[in-house]
Structure formats: C-alpha cells, structure tokens
Amino acid sequence: MGYDWDFSPVWRNAGPLLEGLGNTLWLSGWSIAAGLALGLVLALLRLSRSRVLSVLALAVIEFYRNTPPLLHFFWYFFGLPILLNISMSPFGAALLALSVQSGAFFAEIFRAGIISIEKGQWEAGRALGMTEARLMRRIILPQAVRRMIPPLMERSFELVKTTALAATLAYGELLYRAMVIASQSFRPLETYSAVAVIFFLVLFLASLGMRRVEAVLHRGRR
Amino acid sequence: MDYEFDFLEILRNADLLLRGIWLTVALWVIAFVLALVVGLFLGIARGSPRKILNWPATAYIEVFRNTPVLVQLVWFYYAFPVLTGIQTTPFLAASLGLCLNTSAYCAEIYRGGLQSITAGQWEAGRALGMSYWTLMRRIILPQAIRRMIPAFTNRGVELAKMTSIASVITVHELMHEARTLSTQTFLPLETFTVVAVIYFFLIYPGTVVASIIERRLNARGA
C-alpha cells in the first residue's frame, strides 16, 4: 500500500474537532436528561390505571422504538416547524429527536424496573397508610433504580452514538466538523479515522466506567 | 394549527417510495445474512482461550460497537477507497459497513449462547469421538441457537432501523427517496410522516415476533 499518510490537517484542525466533541457531549447530555424525564413520565402513564393513558403511552413507545432515528431528525427539523409554524434550529431538532426516541427506550427500562419490585413491598407500604405517590418515591423507586442503572447507561451510550446523525442537519458536532475538514483538505482517510478513534476512546472509556458501576451495584446487593 | 395536509401528492409518488422500500429490504437481507455468518466465526474466536484468536476478535467487536454506525459508513465510503484504491459504490459501502457492524453484535450473541451450553455436552461429544466442528454443528449449535433467536430478532430490528443511515452516503433506499420526495413536492411534513408509518409497519412485526418467541422460550423454561 503506497499511500502517504498525512495527519497534519487533523492536527491543524484540532481546535474545531475538540469543539465538535464538546458539542457532541453537550447534545448528548441534554438529550439524556430530557429523555430520562420523558421516559419516567411515559413509564408512569404506561403503568397508570387509566386504560386510555396506558394505551396512548404504549403507542408512543412502540412507534419510537420501531422507526429509524434518522427519520425523526428530519421530521423534527423539516416537518414539525410546518405543523407548528415555528422555526427550528438543528440543535433543537436533534435534541427533540434524540430525547423522544430514547425516552421511549428509557420508559421500558423504568417500567421493567418498577414491576420487578415484589408485590409485598406495595402491600406493606399501603398497610402503613402511604399514598401511591409517596410509596413510589420512598419505597419502590429507590429499590428499582439500582436495577435500572446498567440498562439506562447502556441506552445512553447508544444515544451518544446516535448524536452523529445531527451531522446530517449541519449541527457542528464531531462528525460534521470532520466532514468539513475532509472536504477542505482532501484527506478523508485521516480525518474520518481520527473521528472514529475519538468516538471509540470516549465510548470505550465510558463502558469501562459502566463495568465499575455494575460491580459496585452488585457488591451492594449482597 | 391551520395547516392543510396534502397526502394525495405523496400517494401519487408511491412508485418512488416502493423502489426505496425494495432497496431497504435488499440492504437488510444482504447485511443480515452475511453478518450472521461472519458473526459466528467471530463469536467462536471471541470465546476461544487462544490469544491469537481471542484478541483480534475482541478488538474488532469493541471497535464496531463503540463507534457510531454513521461514522463507519462514511469511513467505508470516503476513506476506505483512499486506503485501498478500490472505488466502492454507495450500496457496496453501505452493505459492508452495516454487515460488519451487525456482525460484531451477532458475535456477542453467539458467544453468550455458546457459553450457556454446559460443559457436559462438550465432554459427552468428545467421549463419542466427535471432532470440534462436528460437535459444534450437531450438538452445541442446535441447542444454543434456540436460545439466541430472540436476541437475533432484536438485532434484525436494530439493523432495519440502521439501513436508513445508508441514505447519507446516497444509497437510494427508502429514507433517501423520502428526502428526494420532500424537496420535490415541498411537503416534508407529509412525506416524513408517511415514511415513518411505512417504516413502522416494516419493522414492528419483527418486534412482535421477538416477544412471542421470547415468551414461548420462557414458558418452556429453555
């Protein structure tokens, strides 16, 4: 292979690339936070006694779990502004698409965690005269949350990978910055390889961190 | 919300979307079948005690699982030809990227399934004088694959959603045709809504099948 590697365009553009990584993490952080909040609401609706609310939440969850994320990016960027007669920034559309879709996945994790708590815990709380809301807050959620943490973290890593799709809306995250650099420097191989390495380092270190957390949770249970 | 929907215009272009669906399905079938084959060998190598097999397989799996699939497709389309001098078509780059990505996940499913088979099965096979591959083919895989089916079905669903990302490297699958149609008709809201529904009906049956199989296996206590 007689190819001359030249990483100088990558080093010269280290600033924009790091800024892109910052934007990737910024978008990820807000989407995870919004997704968790939305997921909790969806899970509670799904578990509510009202049949209408439960079916409605189920429909939202199943729809978002079974459609491609890229489509949601486009729907929120090009479709929603027409429906609501508003203007939409690439960041806003990406945030909505990511948080609604991961909210649907988070909801299923929350629900599975909540229903995994034995019936006796509910009965004991009720016998003490606790209201449903207080029982949920004081007894059920603290126990359920430990079981939810590993799958929630795994889903969050998926979300971080999905933020790369925001490049298609020209949001200045890592991949988009790389696309600009690659087309200006005619060095796609070096640029995209560098981006792959950066993503890998971030996500791989995060997954090592997750294994630590899992070990701690496991130890705490015994 | 006084927007007037115009779905008729979308219906008039049904042939465009149908062609897109066809290519989406083709991409899915090619990538999934190849990934199942490649993943088997990777999974066996990953579970092997021999370092020369284990380490490369582990590295491959971690790289593909810890980078965004869009970065992988962009890499195979724009960077891979620079490295090898082989100009790939968008469809080839997309099939390759999706197949390699999915094979990394399939490898982990195979490994988990193979590990779940008790050592006694291996010992019994060896005592009968079976070779490694005969044992694998006749005894281990038939038992293990049944347990892996729900996980593979979920992978198939994930892959179906991922095919939409091929649109970014100009494969004319459903998502790409949707983008073309939305700019031609100036009807992004209707187009992306209709295409979301199409994707849902293509993908949701897979999810339903996965949960049915899972429930059956659980009921049987396999």
TrEMBL record, chain A:
Pfam families: BPD_transp_1. The keyword Manganese does not apply. It is found in: Cell inner membrane; Cell membrane. InterPro entries: AA_ABC_transptr_permease_3TM (IPR010065), ArtM/GltK/GlnP/TcyL/YhdX-like (IPR043429), MetI-like (IPR000515), MetI-like_sf (IPR035906). GO terms for biological process: amino acid transport. Its main location: membrane. One of its GO terms (molecular function) is transmembrane transporter activity. Part of the binding-protein-dependent transport system for glutamine; probably responsible for the translocation of the substrate across the membrane. This is Polar amino acid transport system permease protein.
Automatic annotation (TrEMBL), chain B:
The chain crosses the membrane at residues 20-42, 192-213. One of its GO terms (molecular function) is transmembrane transporter activity. The keyword Ubl conjugation does not apply. The keyword Magnesium does not apply. CDD domains: TM_PBP2 (cd06261). Residues 21-210 form the ABC transmembrane type-1 domain. One of its GO terms (biological process) is amino acid transport. GO terms for cellular component: ATP-binding cassette (ABC) transporter complex. Keywords: Amino-acid transport, Cell membrane, Membrane, Transmembrane, Transmembrane helix, Transport. Pfam families: BPD_transp_1. It is found in: Cell inner membrane; Cell membrane. Its main location: membrane. It is a multi-pass membrane protein. Belongs to the binding-protein-dependent transport system permease family. HisMQ subfamily. The complex is composed of two ATP-binding proteins (GltL), two transmembrane proteins (GltJ and GltK) and a solute-binding protein (GltI). Part of the binding-protein-dependent transport system for glutamine; probably responsible for the translocation of the substrate across the membrane. This is Glutamate/aspartate import permease protein GltK. It comes from Muricoccus roseus. The lineage of its organism: Bacteria, Pseudomonadati, Pseudomonadota, Alphaproteobacteria, Acetobacterales.
